[in-house]
């Protein structure tokens, strides 16, 4: 076993864990990823209907194994700054605030350790990913994801630091120094991530860090352009989008604007669009982007963990008005689909009761207390579509034409026929579905984009031969290559097989218990 911790969120724990999984799988090792507690709005449904974080799904793909609930037994899905839905072994348990969550810690620790035990019994190696930073000493007493897990399982720990942020040596040293002596004894060494520059200028710092801590730097991982992977939250969206492929398309490019509301979820849905040659994806997160919503060839309203709240944000920022003024294509996915409806009744997620939707699709939404978790299969544009569903909102589509007056602005302004679209509907230039992952189906994606281009009046022809699944595999292979080329893999194997080296020095004063 091995725990990959980090000095901060987005230090690179997820990609390092995936890279180690791919490297071990190549060696013929049966390996599984594990993250005891994950806070993320990007999730996925396993084959047996459990909801887990997307990062663990990508890590399972790197390991070449089927993702299961035990790989992420506790998933926290924030609905506001203070409240989160607690998902345990793939099923919603409760909605709690930060203080209420403490009452669940003991029982959740037992769940996490039991999941880890089952994985250890089924696989040769389990590579664990920490959460946030192990040096969050205000949370140490109830920790179940970092040093609390490592100490309970007797697991060696490697700490990843992000040199691109600056201050990496202080972050690595300080992370170690703030821990209790018993925790420090499990911190076996460091990895430096996202390095770009002259290695010879870095070496003196590596030597000094080793002398100060008694722990080696096992590797310096390079900044990899064009590399991306499923992330846990929207904090890293800006840097990630810059890393998505930018290939030249045939004819004109197709401009896609994605609305980034405060509680955006499953924004991984648009990765397949961004990977398509000639498609340019940009995120709009403020009133300043209203013009971009009006001018884009396609606007995507993605999922939301707080549909009613994010809909109100759309109106407050003026982005809702920009959407209603559009005459070009709009695609709503899950929460975004719900926002396009005429009305939303929500006594579950927000408790707001009935509120008006944007009215661009002839549908009503009612939130159910039981969450829908499914892996549907369907067909659209003559192509098979495999997808997954995660939602409380149930959408009912009217079986007749829209009733909007012909002089009303918006892409569905004129009376138009309601057409089926996956599990949802299409009216004119507006599409809606609750299905996530549909755009990862290559044939469907290209046919949909061709239709969008025709409606938008763009001379855009989707490229043939682009396989999103193959692209994902290439990126996971690149992570495996990164570990093999830039990490002391012999030392990693020793940690995995033998545990933390004995006699590692403790740095005073350590954190108070």
TrEMBL record:
Please report the stretch or stretches of sequence annotated as the CobQ/CobB/MinD/ParA nucleotide binding domain: 3-227
Keyword Zinc belongs to the record: no
Superkingdom, taxonomy of origin: Bacteria
Q: What does this protein do?
A: Catalyzes amidations at positions B, D, E, and G on adenosylcobyrinic A,C-diamide. NH(2) groups are provided by glutamine, and one molecule of ATP is hydrogenolyzed for each amidation.
One record GO biological process: cobalamin biosynthetic process
Per its record, how is this protein called by name? Cobyric acid synthase
- Native source organism of the sequence: Sphaerisporangium album
Gene Ontology molecular-function annotations: ABC-type vitamin B12 transporter activity; catalytic activity
User: What positions constitute the catalytic site?
Assistant: 334, 436
The residues forming a coiled coil are: none
């Amino acid at each position: 076993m091995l725990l990959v911790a980090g000095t901060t969120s987005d230090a690179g724990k997820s990609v390092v864990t995936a890279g180690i999984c791919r490297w071990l799988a190549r060696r013929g090792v049966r390996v599984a990823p594990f993250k005891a507690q994950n806070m993320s709005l990007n999730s996925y449904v396993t084959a047996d209907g459990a909801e887990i974080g997307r990062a663990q799904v990508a890590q399972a793909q790197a390991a070449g194994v089927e993702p299961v609930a035990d790989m992420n037994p506790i998933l926290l899905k924030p609905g506001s700054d203070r409240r989160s839905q607690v998902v345990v072994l793939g099923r919603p348990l409760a909605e709690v605030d930060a203080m209420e969550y403490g009452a669940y810690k003991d029982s959740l620790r037992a769940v996490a350790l039991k999941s880890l035990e089952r994985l250890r019994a089924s696989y040769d190696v389990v590579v664990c990913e920490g959460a946030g930073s192990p040096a969050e000493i205000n949370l140490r007493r109830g920790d179940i994801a970092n040093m609390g897990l490592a100490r309970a399982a007797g697991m060696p720990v490697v700490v990843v630091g992000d040199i691109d942020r600056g201050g990496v040596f202080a972050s690595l040293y300080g992370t170690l120094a703030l821990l209790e002596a018993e925790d420090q004894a499990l911190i076996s060494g460091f990895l430096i991530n996202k390095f770009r520059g002259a290695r010879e200028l870095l070496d003196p710092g590596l030597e000094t860090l080793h002398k100060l801590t008694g722990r080696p730097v096992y590797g310096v991982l390079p900044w990899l352009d064009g590399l991306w992977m499923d992330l846990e939250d929207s904090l890293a969206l800006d840097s990630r989008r810059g890393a998505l492929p930018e290939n030249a398309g045939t004819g004109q490019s197709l401009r896609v604007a994605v609305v980034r509301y405060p509680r955006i979820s499953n924004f991984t849905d648009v990765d397949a669009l961004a990977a398509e040659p000639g498609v340019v994806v940009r995120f709009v997160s403020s009133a300043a982007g209203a013009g971009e919503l009006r001018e884009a060839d396609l606007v995507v309203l993605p999922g939301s963990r707080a549909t009613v709240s994010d809909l109100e944000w759309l109106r407050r920022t003026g982005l809702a008005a920009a959407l209603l003024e559009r005459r070009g294509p709009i695609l709503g996915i899950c929460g975004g689909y719900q926002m396009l409806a005429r009305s939303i009744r929500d006594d579950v997620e927000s408790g707001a009761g009935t509120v008006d939707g944007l009215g661009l699709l002839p549908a009503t939404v009612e939130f159910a207390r039981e969450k829908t978790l499914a892996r549907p299969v369907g067909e659209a544009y003559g192509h098979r579509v495999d997808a997954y569903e995660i939602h409380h909102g149930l959408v009912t589509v009217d079986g007749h034409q829209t009733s909007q007056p012909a002089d009303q602005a918006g892409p569905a302004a004129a009376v138009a026929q309601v057409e089926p679209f996956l599990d949802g509907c299409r009216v004119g230039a507006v599409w809606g579905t609750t299905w996530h992952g549909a755009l990862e189906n290559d044939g469907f994606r290209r046919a949909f984009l061709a239709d969008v281009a025709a409606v938008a009046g763009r001379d855009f022809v989707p490229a043939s031969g682009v396989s999103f699944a193959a692209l994902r595999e290439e990126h996971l292979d690149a992570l495996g290559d990164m570990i093999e080329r830039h990490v002391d893999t012999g030392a990693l194997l020793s940690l995995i097989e033998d545990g933390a080296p004995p006699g590692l020095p403790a740095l005073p004063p350590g954190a108070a218990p």
